[in-house]
DNA sequence: CAGTATCCAACTAGATACTG
DNA sequence: CAGTATCTAGTTGGATACTG
């Protein structure tokens, strides 16, 4: 595979998984399976409603997160990972594992 | 492992691999082993000198890219992946593979 | 050749207020 | 409860000019 084309595709993946709050949103949904809007908001310290909405809409757009609306008052909306979205978990794990490696490496460098 | 701590670490990894031009820089260096500044610049259409410098400095800071300066006129500077930096290749590959999967999935969705 | 320095436009994200 | 709307401060990145 040509490297330039590959970089192009990597960028696309990054745009989806990145976004300041996406990893934490995804990890929470992987853990809890189903979460309501305010439940997510409480679980993510520092996020604003606007940001949470935006990031969830983007993940929904990519068919990674499913949004279930219950037509009732007060409104109830539940978020979950789609069947397809589950494919992203291994990517998050690889990134996490490398991060741990990286932290250790930096610590080692500082001790020299 | 607690999910919140994990998200934190994933973010750190993302900050390093992301940056608009980092994937392409890294992939080029993985392919060519050693590249000079202008060689990289020519290989990356649209990048400015400022951006290339910034991104390279950040990768150098993280001990992922090595910068070899030859004290001569005109100056010659060569960039390469550090021994440690090689650990990032598999992360890029996983992200790339998922991107390909994702493109296929989106195409399938549009045909429905 | 391999950068630095400066300026500015565009986008991002936070705070805040409002609503079905 | 689960958002939307608006405004604004801060950051990012591009264009351009200059340099050892």
From TrEMBL, chains A, B:
Alphabetized Pfam families for the sequence: HxlR
Keywords, alphabetical: DNA-binding, Transcription, Transcription regulation
Recorded GO MF terms: DNA binding
Designated name of the protein: HxlR family transcriptional regulator
InterPro entries: HTH_HxlR (IPR002577), WH-like_DNA-bd_sf (IPR036388), WH_DNA-bd_sf (IPR036390)
SUPFAM superfamilies reported for this sequence: Winged helix' DNA-binding domain
Location of the HTH hxlR-type domain: 8-107
């Amino acid at each position: 595979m040509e490297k330039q084309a590959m970089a192009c595709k990597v960028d696309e993946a990054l745009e989806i998984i990145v976004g300041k709050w996406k990893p934490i949103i995804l990890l929470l949904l992987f853990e809890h399976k189903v979460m309501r809007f305010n439940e997510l908001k409480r679980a993510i310290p520092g996020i604003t409603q606007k940001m949470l909405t935006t990031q969830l809409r983007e993940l929904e757009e990519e068919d990674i997160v499913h949004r279930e609306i219950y037509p009732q008052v007060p409104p109830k909306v539940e978020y979950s990972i789609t069947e397809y979205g589950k494919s992203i978990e291994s990517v998050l794990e690889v990134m996490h594992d490398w991060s741990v490696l990286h932290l250790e490496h930096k610590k080692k460098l500082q001790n020299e």
